[in-house]
Amino acid sequence: xxxxxxxxxxxxxxxxxxxxxxxxxxxxxxxxxxxxxxxxxxxxxxxxxxxxxxxxxxxxxxxxxxxxxxxxxx
Length: 74
Hints:
Elements: E1 2-14, E2 18-25, E3 31-37, E4 47-52, E5 57-60, E6 63-70
Antiparallel strand pairs: 1-2, 1-6, 3-4, 4-5
């Protein structure tokens, strides 16, 4: 079964420092799981729900990369 391990989002580039982005990774900084939510109809968008170990959930829309990991092989 493939599960999402890490997402990067809000990628941008600056002239002075080069590329920058934010990321969430399962197991780091309290991230418990990341779930993908596909568009359900016209006008809907792809988004990801990040759940933390304290119960907080965040929806992320501006995704740049997604890393999947196949947990069934481990």
